Amino acid sequence: MGEPAKVAAARGAAVEVRIPVTVDAGFHVNSNRPSEDYLIPLKLTWTSLGALEGGEVAYPQAKSEKYDFAEKPLSVFSGSFSLTASFKAAANAPPGPGMASGKLRYQACNSNTCFPPKTADVNVTYQVQ
Amino acid sequence: MSAFRFSAILSTALALGLFTAGCGGPAEVKAATLKPEKERKSAPDFALKDADGKLVHLSDYRGKVVILDFWATWCGPCRIEIPWFIDLQRKNRDRGFEVLGVAMDDEGWEVVKPFLAELGVNYRVLIGDDLTTQMYGGVDALPTTFLIDRSGKVAAVHVGLTSRKDIEDGVEQLLQSPAAVASAGAGEPVVSLSAK
Predict the structure, then answer these.
(1) Which of A127, B9, B139, B185 is the most buried (most CB within 10 A)?
(2) What is the ipTM metric for this complex?
(3) pLDDT tens per residue, range A68-101
(4) Domain ranges in chain A?
(5) 0.80 exceeded by the pTM?
(6) Chain A partners of B104 at a C-beta cutoff of 8 Å?
(7) CB-count exposure of residue B178 (10 Å: 0-12, 13-18, 19+)
(8) Does domain A5-128 correspond to CATH entry 2.30.38.10?
(9) How far apart are CA A39 and CA B75, in angstroms?
(10) At A61, is the pLDDT very low, low, confident or very high (cuts 50, 70, 90)?
């Protein structure tokens, strides 16, 4: 799992954070908007923002891929991609370091097997200037 | 207010590790081959609750051929196999055959019951737990299906979506085998099976 990223943010300024993700070769995870109701979406949820505000997450364009176990193509992510989180440093944030923490929930499959949903920790360290 | 774009490169990108050590890629689907009887090991007994809250033991099914299917509602490949099991249950229930489903959904019956109703599942389904999966070698990949002979021993294991014919042929072979004397008693040591 990744080490905390270093982000510099001026008080009151907007900050976008890119969060690279890599899925093991041969596997895929459901996108944030799966094509079937029963599928578990990829979802990043912030559990602690510190002196940052917002944290809205933008997901990349999903791939539409056909698998033998589904009648229709599925909306998935595979390989390497990035999520983007939009923050704003609070206007009254004290100068200094801090950390925003989140949980990335995902559920992965390959062409004939699926694995239970898992959660990965995502930490973004910042420096309010 | 200008929006700064920071490339907050994690020193190591989030790698969605998929706990596939030693696999290196999609699991290989192998043809159904029943283990020779002498090589079969006892299927670990378990106690899990069914939809009515009744405690079910695998040992309750001694003397029958059993398909033990670990699955989940969020598992696409599992959804392909379940209609096969419904057919097998319907065709063979009078021949000493039963399907037992073990659902691995964290949400339990809240999501499993509607699914069973939707598909018209005609066999018993239980809610699985960690203890049971550990007994079966840490079942993680779904579906994982065990074919259990009349003496309660594992004759075949299928990890991942397999072919309908493999499943049906395996069941038929077991049903046609002479009924073995159920010799495995309660004192028999539990054997942990590798599902991979």
Answers:
(1) B139
(2) 0.89
(3) 888 899 999 999 999 999 999 999 989 999 999 9
(4) 5-128
(5) yes
(6) 116
(7) exposed
(8) no
(9) 7
(10) very high
